[in-house]
Amino acid sequence: MTAKAQYQLKEGNLPDEVSILDYASILNTGKDDLGINSIIKNLDKFEFKPLSGKFGNLGFTNNNYWVKFQIQNTLDVPVLYYLLTAEPVTDNVNLYLLGNNSKIELQKSGDNLNFNEKSIANRKTVFKIELEPGETKNAFIKIKNDGEKNSLPLILLSQQKMLEHTYFDQLIMGIFYGILLVVAITYFFFYFALKDSAFLYYTLYVFFMGLCQFALDGFYHQYIGTGNSWFSLHAVIISAILSCFFFGKYSEIILEIRQKSRLIYKLFKPLYIALGLVLTCIILFPDFLKYSYPIINILTVIGLLLIFSSIAVILITKQAIDIFYTIGISILALSIILAILMNFGIFPEDFSTDNITKPGIGLEIIALSLSMANRIGILRNKKEELQNIALQKSEEMNDIKSYFLSNMSHELRTPLNVILGLTAIMEKEITDADLRLNCEKIKLASNGLISSVNDILDFSQIEKGLLQLDNNNFNAHEVLEKLANSAKRQTKDKGLMFNFESTLERNVMLLGDSVRLEQIIHNVLGNSIKFTSEGEVTLKAKSTITDNTLTLNITINDTGIGIPKEKLDKIFELFVQTNADNKRKYGGFGIGLTIAKALIDLHNGHINIISSVGHGTSCEIMIQYPIQKIIDKAANEYPTDEYDLLGKHILIVEDNPMNQMIIQMMLEDWKNTKVSIADDGAKSLDLLKSDDSIDLILMDLQMPVMDGYEAITAIRSGLTGPNNTEKPIIVITADITSETKDRIYNIGANGYMNKPVNEELMYQKITEALSAQIIMPTNLIQSA
Prior knowledge:
Distance between the termini: 118 Å
């Protein structure tokens, strides 16, 4: 022993607390697990090195260490001291004392033991040293850890001082962990009240951070995991991983990282993956534990760097930031960085981690709790803002719904175009009466489906208040006659009588929306037929003319099931039928009368329904229209008794192969008609550039590569040559909205047709356009 290798207890110099680090030396035996006998026998061969500093920091290690020192009692009385050695979470610490009689006294501690197996039942790694008068003892301490950070304070405490330390620890630690528990429980209840995940993440962070400290301080081993179970031995690292994860998720929400910096938000994901991999490796590979402690420290620093980068971005972009959170994270970062530097043995050696982490965590929790309290106020203030956002979202959903309905209309009309087109072609080619009757039924069912699609679209427009009427010249008698013919076929199939009476003059032209008039009557008449099982349905029409205005009176009577009086006031509401079973029995969406009422109101008209259960219903409709003078149309130079285009060349621009086939079959069935096809707008431009013989273009709107809008604009702007800028373009589309009509006329289309294509109407549109070469949109509206 050198002069400084022995600590002497002298008269008048009995300390209550003293560090003996300067009197101790240490030996690192690496992976060699040597016993006490080997150490004593080869003492001269081993190179023990001095221990320095206040806490003998060993850093992260899983090596075997031996510490030796000598202590002498020079007094005439026996003395007793307690020796504080390694960290509370050190796996195994054995103290071997050799007295004057050369007998070896063994004391054990460490969390690899059951708590009741410790020589001193204390959370700390503490041993008892007793010295007789004049006795000298050589002490050898064997330290073994699993990779955690370790330090060797080597402090001697008198019995009085040990008692004071114990009570002081109980007070301070009780306050510390009590605050953490109260904070965790409080904000856990706030989470259930506010349903804000930030409160849940903050609660879990506080809980697992507190659990980590609870395990580091040895309380977990003392009170909960008193054995040496797997979780007890891994409580520190597992709780550290989980606290890092939940603090990251909590910070993401508080700083709104996802919204304010997508890059930093994406960088958090690899961090979480790394934490998950470390946890997985700890579970699957026991030897990985020694690497996990430094890795978690490094990942913690990376997480802090990401958080401070987010704060920097927020400050640079001059966005609002929670000052309490910023203060809390700054305190936490300073504490963690200093603790990590100490863990790696870098800086400083004169402080313990308890001196840094406990006050730092306490101040951090206070600041972050103030931040969460502030968030409660922010959430309350945002309530109105969230309501406004909800309203805006509702409006956006209505727009999405309208888009969906419009797209649905397009997708339904495309196959219906094929069905009706092929049916019309078959009807012209077959002579068998039964087959022709079947074709009529197909057409009737398809037209019913089209009507339902129109009702759905109109329902969307009614909800948004955007339903509008067109102004066209039309013959009211022709509209009613068309509806009557359709109703006659439907009633015949049901075995009903149908009567049609009209006193309208056949040659009177009115100005208004004939499509909407047809829809009104179709919906009401369809209801009468639907809810009538026997008897008859009658459609009556009469008119009166006053000051160039025609008042149209329509009456529809049936002998159906009738409507109860209490239901009459609600019959025009959405999705209302007189009985819930009617939806299953009679079908329908329940919006027909609602749409009819809305359209009648747009006409400033009137509808009245009188009904009696079991006796039928009578519906009276009154609408006024201006009488329109006959406008001279351009002379039609093409035959009206047959389909003959006299050698004209028609270009079909359509991406759907089935629609191409139907329109092509119709046109090629006409006399003296040449047909070309382009799959999209871009190909149509190429054809127009290379072929000057094209006389008219039938243009679809929704196509890949280049849609119809772009193609029409390109043609009218001269991109296909000056000879094509005035060529007639008739749009054939499944989109029936008024916005689409306005748009295609504004960009230069000459005509408009809905899918499914009606061959007779298509011939009329094509021949009128070819006769005039170009029909201006205003003239088209007047003469449609």
